[in-house]
Amino acid sequence: MLNVxxxxxSLKNPIMxxxxxxxFGKEYANIYDVSQLGAIMIKATTSEPRxxxxxxxxxxxxAGMLNAIGLQNPGLxxxxxxxxxxxxxxxxxxxxxxxxxxxxxxxxxxxxxxxSPNVHAIELNISCPNVKTGGIAFGTVPEIAAQLTRAVKNxxxxxxxxxxxxxxxxxxxxxxxxxxxxADGLTMINTLLGMRLNLKTGxxxxxxxxxxxxxxxxxxxxxxxxxxxxxxxxxxxxxxxxIQTVDDVIEFMYAGASAVAVGTAxxxxxxxxxxxxxxxxxxxxxxxxxxxxxxxxxxxxxxRKTAHYCP
Amino acid sequence: MLNVxxxxxSLKNPIMxxxxxxxFGKEYANIYDVSQLGAIMIKATTSEPRxxxxxxxxxxxxAGMLNAIGLQNPGLxxxxxxxxxxxxxxxxxxxxxxxxxxxxxxxxxxxxxxxSPNVHAIELNISCPNVKTGGIAFGTVPEIAAQLTRAVKNxxxxxxxxxxxxxxxxxxxxxxxxxxxxADGLTMINTLLGMRLNLKTGxxxxxxxxxxxxxxxxxxxxxxxxxxxxxxxxxxxxxxxxIQTVDDVIEFMYAGASAVAVGTAxxxxxxxxxxxxxxxxxxxxxxxxxxxxxxxxxxxxxxRKTAHYCP
Amino acid sequence: xxxKELMTVINxxxxxxxxxxxxxxxxxxxxxxxxxQFVHLKVTEGSAPLLRRPISISEIDKEKNQFTMxxxxxxxxxxxLSAKKPGDNVxxxxxxxxxxxxxxxKAGQTALLVGGGIGVPPLLELxxxxxxxxxxxxxxxxxxxxxxxxxxxxxxxxxxxxxxTVDGTYGSKGFVTDLITNYELEFDTTFACxxxxxxxxxxxxxxHKPMYLSLEERMGCGIGACFACVCHxxxxxxxxxxxxxxxxxxxxxxxxxxI
Amino acid sequence: xxxKELMTVINxxxxxxxxxxxxxxxxxxxxxxxxxQFVHLKVTEGSAPLLRRPISISEIDKEKNQFTMxxxxxxxxxxxLSAKKPGDNVxxxxxxxxxxxxxxxKAGQTALLVGGGIGVPPLLELxxxxxxxxxxxxxxxxxxxxxxxxxxxxxxxxxxxxxxTVDGTYGSKGFVTDLITNYELEFDTTFACxxxxxxxxxxxxxxHKPMYLSLEERMGCGIGACFACVCHxxxxxxxxxxxxxxxxxxxxxxxxxxI
Lengths: 311, 311, 259, 259
Ligand SMILES: Cc1cc2nc3c(=O)[nH]c(=O)nc-3n(C[C@H](O)[C@H](O)[C@H](O)COP(=O)(O)OP(=O)(O)OC[C@H]3O[C@@H](n4cnc5c(N)ncnc54)[C@H](O)[C@@H]3O)c2cc1C
Ligand SMILES: Cc1cc2nc3c(=O)[nH]c(=O)nc-3n(C[C@H](O)[C@H](O)[C@H](O)COP(=O)(O)OP(=O)(O)OC[C@H]3O[C@@H](n4cnc5c(N)ncnc54)[C@H](O)[C@@H]3O)c2cc1C
Ligand SMILES: Cc1cc2nc3c(=O)[nH]c(=O)nc-3n(C[C@H](O)[C@H](O)[C@H](O)COP(=O)(O)O)c2cc1C
Ligand SMILES: Cc1cc2nc3c(=O)[nH]c(=O)nc-3n(C[C@H](O)[C@H](O)[C@H](O)COP(=O)(O)O)c2cc1C
Ligand code: FES
Ligand code: FES
What we know:
The complex is a heterotetramer, with two copies of chain A (311 residues) and two copies of chain C (259 residues). By secondary structure, chain A is an alpha/beta fold.
């Protein structure tokens, strides 16, 4: 009752860890069997290795956290050689999160990484607000987002999902431009730009000053955006932003997400993904559903429950 | 050590209730002396009376709440006759929050309400996301925000503060346009657009579907925006968004606010404003300050504590 | 006068499935007057959950400075509340709103008290006050099912008490209105608290006699400042006149507001 | 193996100003090996506060399945932790990271254990292990002021113990490094935990002999997945090679990473 079919992705269930909150899976593979997961969204990969920002890189906020990791990663080559190869031992599709400072970077990374046998989809991180050079603009200007999408689609061997930034006036406009440019799906939302100051020094706690806000605090914004976008595009959405409980999973899918990703909650409870996968069938039954696909977009699609169907 | 001078406003202290979270003051005047407050931001006033949206109008979220009141108010005439006149008994400046669906509405309301003797400033609510007709656009397009500001400045008898919406890609651009158009100050932030769904029905909890997210959850976004805007404009900012404690007050002022407003926290603790006013001097002393003005913009203004000064 | 006080838990009892009876003590009790008023509770110090929860006053003991609430532990707030033990604190704001008026009823007259589910609790204090005045009380209380029936015995001590359950597992099967109609109950004034459909049905059937209804609405402030809880007046159902459930209510005369 | 367990509070004691000693019991203790590892604590069920708090393991009692932590109650999380009473639960993730290696030291050799403030606790278990092996231990522990001195007596039982306070209200006045220099302490290996400036000073002065430093950094996951807690390696101080404090550390050989 949990399987989900999306472009390039045959998911056992709609639950996966979000990019940057699961590394390349090693740490979690030490504590549970990651083959249970619907998929794994790996940490952003750039063409060259990056160290990222100076520490402190995280700060807690009310019901949320700020991060400014700065896209630390070992670079395309090592990700393919060490991380993706190592992940092949698990029966789980990988969604490769791709980042860069210019279109060519994205194209280069996508071209290579999409050849890896276990990479079943690309997730274009056009929204990461942490890197000073570039990054932020791609996700905020519809034409540029579309241009990037087209360029990446041209070289990708697998379907391309584009990850939307919530820090925009009109999320629907950007989503539509990306759809038109040929994206196979959307993932949303990335973090909200935020800041926290140290009471004693007066200075920002993060050495990068601003950071991305994630966690339960941003859930209402994510739900609103998915609700709006899912009604305006015909490509599927993987939803994220503050998911902690099985009820949150259901709320995201009601809003219009076809699957969901769990980010910050992995830090609070490293076993959260398998726990949600375990809990979902019973909760769906309680609410009167036979298959998770029945609930997608329920907030706007159906006036009443649809007739049951088994895929 | 708490007095603050702002255009039109001679504040005993930098603490005031935020618009829409204090009605027109009557309910709070029943439980404490509202003359203690730095100022009062009254509920949005429109030219005609409005009933607002159907209930439910509020929903709780993690560390926040959504509201879609829909600008309910008795209309310009009654606000002046009943509410403002009644408030004259208190020694506290009033900041009149003005809303509308078209520029003429704002002009009409400002023209009349700014004549009230205790209205010392206007706060243009160009950001309320709750009213389907108009409202939202003013705050998201720099040119329109500027146009509105100019029109209102032309007729206002008192300084005009413009309240910024956080639901924009580039808050600095809008702030600058508004400054250029002659605004005397800014207030920020209004609520983030959000949504929550009912698990059982699948439908949005708010009858208006979307609502404005307020409370501690949005504080990091507010701090970031005030930090950015205060460095780019030369007019003062009244900061708001999730303030609950005296440390929050200080954080907002470090970020660049010259005074602060408290919204949602009034519902959690109706005595919050006087409690913050009481607690502020001691906390400032603990942190090594002699006057609240020393901390404004400390996050970016000073590398070290400035020399003491008494105004 | 509305006060805010950290009151002390004296007793907490589970009296039915997920239904808890909580007694707290403090000075705030001195401010309580009418039955049917409510309090607004903050169950934790932090912001999880952020908002207060409105709960009716079920019994007042002025001598001991104590009052009692009965509530269903359902969401985050009420579940945390149900974990409070004697000696723990609860942050209480109250008393709030206007309760049931009892002045017009004279000794010997009959009051019909109708409660549905979690709307039953405020009827207990009301019933006591009426009985003190010599008013004859009849109670009709309805529940979903046997597991969640409560206050029957307490009310029985005060007057005739009929219980209905929707599924017929206890008392008469059906809704409270079915019972009132079937038994042809006689009365001078009705007081009711419960789910909106129940109140609507009562209003339609019996509002030719004086009837007071206690309403529920999602609340922000609870004191009349935020306009979260307004309803239209029946005099101007599509216009801009309104009443606030928290400060004008929660008890309204039937016909006053649109429910 | 990293486990997550709701452990039971056995004892909580205030041992100095705002300093608490907390003993908990559970199966997770079976997984604990080296001194110097830490646990990641969730102090409430809800999201206030949201993140776990890293706290060092101070003592391990394998027989009783108990371990002890010592922490300063300062912010929201540690303050809530300090309110826990025997019988309450704490959500513990651990054991995490790599602790102090004790293999290279032989009986008769001397270990210098240096702790600053809230860095002192992990030295206790370390000292016990070393003493068990026949290693001679010397402790130098530094604090801000008299009010916050702790663990002196416990450490004294294991070996010579010197206390410094910054303001001179107890023990020698000054920093731990002042004391080591002034007393010309001799040792084969140093183990240290405390504020970064202290670790830096130690590294500068004494890293010609083997030295192990336990670092602190703001953490997200605590298990090596989020890249919150990285530091540069000294071999490549401006490059892209890195170590994670949570999973590669918190204990590093002096010279390994940039502190
Ligand atoms: C005047 C008044 C008196 C009440 N008296 C009682 C009583 O005596 N006993 C009792 O069990 N319940 C009573 N209720 C209902 C009670 O307030 C809700 O059941 C409670 O707020 C739900 O909180 P939660 O933490 O369980 O749910 P959550 O789902 O966590 O609540 C989320 C938010 O929605 C609000 N909410 C949810 N359900 C309701 C509701 N039915 N009415 C109003 N707000 C709601 C909560 O207050 C909170 O802000 C009363 C409500 C009102 C308005
Ligand atoms: C490996 C390791 C071991 C530690 N061992 C101990 C110990 O044994 N005893 C002890 O008292 N303290 C220890 N600390 C420091 C302790 O983690 C912080 O004091 C604590 O997290 C602060 O939480 P709070 O709720 O008081 O503060 P808050 O201000 O509410 O914390 C907000 C956020 O900042 C983080 N944070 C704040 N200060 C620190 C800090 N100094 N180091 C890391 N994160 C911080 C918190 O974890 C939280 O995420 C250790 C830190 C690390 C990294
Ligand atoms: C520490 C951290 C690192 C992140 N790194 C990335 C990243 O590399 N690429 C990316 O697209 N999103 C990244 N994100 C964003 C998350 O994938 C996710 O979109 C966001 O955190 C919202 O989900 P959450 O509230 O469940 O965490 C990161 C988030 C966090 C907290
Ligand atoms: C119930 C409610 C009603 C509000 N009404 C108004 C309003 O009429 N005009 C306005 O400019 N802002 C209004 N706001 C926004 C607040 O003034 C404030 O900007 C926002 O809530 C953020 O502050 P907070 O987090 O402290 O609540 C309202 C907020 C709430 C919660
Ligand atoms: S709850 Fe705020 S006005 Fe009624
Ligand atoms: S805290 Fe996440 S990698 Fe160290």
